[in-house]
Structures are given as structure tokens and as C-alpha cells.
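Exercise 7. Given the encoded structure of a 226-residue chain, write a plausible sequence.
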């Protein structure tokens, strides 16, 4: 999914004392297959939405290594951000095991650590995790954090008005893909599945009339289309 600053609004909720966001126009692209081909789709999507014409580009992701590599190759000038909620989930999953699923303990501890990350107190947050440094699981989460250490300065990102959560694209997984592909009794091969997700991406991007209808009319040589 791509969108520009021109297409979202921000405001400050005085009651909750936090910044709120609302995305207007956005465009999706979908590809079922290898990363090397998907990169072409992603670059084309970014360029259609003004990449290169804005002062700053932000790439928000779940921290997967292949996305870090994609940024380095295609968008080296972009600031990557690790989705805060993926980080929070990893912290919470770690806490559940450490505290043997004691809900009061793991929720309190994980909230404290996540609040430290969100406030920009990364060193303090990592220190809390390192208390359990003898545990193999702590090494896993610390590796995850260290691999994304340049992408978790959430306090700075929030001051700049940038998104730190990928809720919009997580929602699109349901509305663009699963809602159409995972209905009862459905089975797809890759080719037909690709056709459907391409059409869904166009529809959800508000581009059905411009791209799909006109392409269909041209294909069938219908005259006087507009």
C-alpha cells in the first residue's frame, strides 16, 4: 500500500493526549510469487504515488529481512520504521513465556517495556529484557530488536507526525485478499488467484473505472468509451 502526505489528515486528541491519523486515498498492489518480481510491482506503485517528488519517504514494515533488503535496493533514501505493534507482539509473546502466562505479570511487564520503546527510551527497554539474558528466548527477541535498531525511534517518528503502526495494511490483508479469496469452498491456483487479487487491488484503490473498465473496453474494441 502506498499513499502520500497529501492524502491523510492528522490531529491531536486532547482527551487521550495522542496524535490521530486518517488515511484518505491510497493505492494497493498485490503479487503472488517471488520477491524479485514483487519488487517491480512495489517500485511502480511507489513511483505512481510520487516517490522521488517528496522530501521524505517512509517505509513501514513488520521487520522481515527481505523488506529491509528491498528498502536498501529500491528506496535507499527512505526511513524504515518497524511497525510498533509487531514489536509489541514479540515483547508480549516473550513475556507470556517468561511469566508462565500469568496474565497480571506478563501484561504489566510487557506494557512497561512497550511504553519505554514508544517514549524513545530504547536502552531502558532493552535493559528490562536483558534481565532474562540467560534465557534462550531473550536472545531471539534481542536479535529481532538489534536487527531493527535503526527503525524504532518511535518518539522522533511521532513528533514528525509519521505512522508507527501498520494497521492500515494489516486491515487490507482482510479486505483486499482474504475477504475475496477465503470464502467457503473456494480453491485457487496461482494464476487465477493473481487475477483476482489484481482486480481487488484496483477496486479497493478506487481505480476500477480508470484501469479495469477502460482496459476491458479497449480490449474488446468498444468505440466511444470514456
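Solution.
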Amino acid at each position: 500500500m502506498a499513499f502520500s502526505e497529501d492524502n491523510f489528515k492528522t490531529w491531536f486528541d486532547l482527551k487521550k493526549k495522542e496524535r490521530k491519523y486518517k488515511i484518505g486515498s491510497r493505492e494497493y498492489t498485490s503479487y503472488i510469487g517471488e520477491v524479485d518480481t514483487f519488487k517491480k510491482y512495489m517500485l511502480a506503485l511507489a513511483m505512481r504515488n510520487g516517490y522521488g517528488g517528496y522530501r521524505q519517504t517512509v517505509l513501514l514494515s513488520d521487520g522481515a529481512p527481505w523488506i529491509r533488503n528491498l528498502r536498501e535496493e529500491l528506496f535507499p533514501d527512505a526511513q524504515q520504521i518497524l511497525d510498533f505493534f509487531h514489536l509489541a507482539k514479540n515483547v508480549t509473546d516473550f513475556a507470556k513465556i517468561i511469566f508462565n502466562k500469568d496474565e497480571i505479570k506478563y501484561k504489566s511487564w510487557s506494557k512497561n517495556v512497550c511504553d519505554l520503546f514508544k517514549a524513545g527510551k530504547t536502552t531502558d527497554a532493552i535493559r528490562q529484557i536483558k534481565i532474562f539474558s540467560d534465557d534462550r528466548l531473550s536472545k531471539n527477541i534481542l536479535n529481532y530488536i538489534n536487527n531493527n535498531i535503526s527503525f524504532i525511534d518511535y518518539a522522533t517518528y511521532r513528533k514528525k507526525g509519521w505512522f508507527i503502526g501498520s494497521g492500515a495494511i494489516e486491515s487490507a490483508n482482510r479486505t483486499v485478499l482474504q475477504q475475496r479469496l477465503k470464502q467457503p469452498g473456494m480453491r485457487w491456483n496461482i494464476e487465477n488467484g493473481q487475477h483476482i487479487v489484481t482486480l481487488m487491488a484496483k477496486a479497493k484503490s478506487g481505480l476500477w473505472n480508470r484501469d479495469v473498465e477502460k482496459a476491458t473496453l479497449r480490449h474488446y474494441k468498444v468505440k466511444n468509451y470514456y
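Remark. DSSP finds ten helices and four strands in the chain. Students should compare their own answers with the one above.
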